[in-house]
Amino acid sequence: MEQKNIYIQDLTRGILKENPVFVALLGMCPVLGVTGFLFYGFGMGVATTLVMIGGALLVSTLRNYIPQQIRIPCFIVIIATFVTLVDMSLLAYQPALHEALGVFVPLIVCNCLILGRLEAFSSKRPVLRSVSDGVGAGLGFTLALVLLALVREVFGQGTILGPDPESAIVLFGANYEPIGVFAQPAGAFIALGLLLAGVNLFMKRFNI
To answer: pTM of the predicted model, to two decimals?
Structure first.
């Protein structure tokens, strides 16, 4: 039972208590850059999560064989390998999403969230705990992107599940005037600030 609780703690820690975006403020580049639409934010979150899980699995498996002196370069090579796999998969199966995310997919290699978790946790823990931590951190990152994208798309576009007009759901009718600033880069900072305030109030209210 105690061992099971450890895995649950590893999994849930990154979702809220140590959320990479709302608490640690990590990975801000894609957070602010691809959250204009919910579809883009969710896609970026899933891509990052897959890299996070793969990196945690491999680093934990090889942790006793990677020399300490070159561990960071090794971690980066491992991350880059999984980023390449994700990038090629997106190109093959989701070309529209791949084009929309653009350079932000290769830049997952530079995401300090992934490298930080591999260095601080996966390189020192068994495989199952490392994977649980990777899943939790990835889910927390995806949750943050989804919430931010939801706010920006709803208020900045008046839709959900855009940008494809055929799949987008119009929420407020034809007479709605979108709050254009949320669709702009500045709107990402405004929406993120509002969400940070809301999450902090929520965590204080429930002593998380």
So the answer is: 0.92
Tell me which residue of 199, 108, 104, 100 sits closest to 151, measured CA to CA: 199
Neighbour-count burial for 168-200, b at 16+ CB within 10 Å, e otherwise: beeeeeeeeeebebbbeeebbebbbeebeeebe
CB 122 within 8 A of CB 56: yes
Separation of alpha carbons 118 and 138, rounded Å: 12
Contact 122, 60 (CB under 8 A): yes
pLDDT (tens digit, 0 to 9) for every residue of the chain, 208 residues total? Answer: 556 688 889 999 999 889 999 999 988 988 999 999 999 999 999 999 999 999 999 999 999 999 999 999 999 999 999 999 999 999 999 999 999 999 999 999 999 999 999 999 999 999 999 999 999 999 999 999 999 999 999 998 888 888 877 778 888 877 788 888 888 888 899 999 999 999 999 888 888 7
Residue with tokens 């883009």: 40
Residue 176: name the closest of 194, 155, 145, 160 by CA. Answer: 155
